[in-house]
């Protein structure tokens, strides 16, 4: 009997070996049988019922605009320089504190925008943002 002769056909195994699959499934079944009762073990108590809807109190937004002449506008209404800081202080005392959005014209001197920021800081404003136009 010689190896590799043409007389003997090669037997090809056509079946899937199911033994490892059955072993894995049995191990998983045992793990789930052990862990499910542990996960469901809890102390039964009767919890009180309460209506707990979150409050949607969003702070208002103040729009402070500095035009090209350096004038201040509080939500589109002109504000004299002397009245700006007291208005900011009154808004800073509110709870929740409103956000301050500063819009500065690109032709205005940076000094006027810096004065508005300094007044907001002295008044105690915590949230200050800048509004710009996106490039197109």
Keywords:
136 residues, alpha/beta, Nucleotidyltransferase, domain 5, 5-stranded mixed beta sheet, 3 helices, 5 strands, 35% helix
What is the element layout, followed by pairings?
Layout lengths: L18 H21 L21 E6 L5 E3 L2 E3 L1 H12 L6 E6 L5 H14 L4 E3 L6
Parallel strand pairs: 1-4, 4-5
Antiparallel strand pairs: 1-2, 2-3
Helix pairs in contact: 2-3
Explain what you see.
Strand 2 and strand 3 form a beta hairpin. The protein is elongated. 35% of the residues lie in helices and 15% in strands. It has a 5-stranded mixed beta sheet with strand order 3-2-1-4-5. By secondary structure, it is α/β, with parallel strands linked by helices. The longest helix is centred in the N-terminal third of the chain and has 21 residues. Helix 2 runs parallel beside helix 3. The model has no long low-confidence stretch (mean pLDDT 84). It has a domain of 70 residues: 2-Layer Sandwich (Nucleotidyltransferase, domain 5).
The helix count comes to 3
Give me the count of strands.
Answer: 5
Q: Tell me what the CATH architecture of the domain at 61-130 is.
A: 2-Layer Sandwich
Please give the alpha-carbon distance between the first and last residues. Answer: 85 Å
Write the element-wise H/E pattern from the N-terminal end onward. Answer: HEEEHEHE
Structural class by SSE content: alpha/beta
Note poorly predicted spans.
Answer: none
Shape: elongated
CATH class of the domain at 61-130: Alpha Beta
* Arithmetic mean of pLDDT: 84
Q: Estimate percent helicity.
A: 25-40%
């Amino acid at each position: 009997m010689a190896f590799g002769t043409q007389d003997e056909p090669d037997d090809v195994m056509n079946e899937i070996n199911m033994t490892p699959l059955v072993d894995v499934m049995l191990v998983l079944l045992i793990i789930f049988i052990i862990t499910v009762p542990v996960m469901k073990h809890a102390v039964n108590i009767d919890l009180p019922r309460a209506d707990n809807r979150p409050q949607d109190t969003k702070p208002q937004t103040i729009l402070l605009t500095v035009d090209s002449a350096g004038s201040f506008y509080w939500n589109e209404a002109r504000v004299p320089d002397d009245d700006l800081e007291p208005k900011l202080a009154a808004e800073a005392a509110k709870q929740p504190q409103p956000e301050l959005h500063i819009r500065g014209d690109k032709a205005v001197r940076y000094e006027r925008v810096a004065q508005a920021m300094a007044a907001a800081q002295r008044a105690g404003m915590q949230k200050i943002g800048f509004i710009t136009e996106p490039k197109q």
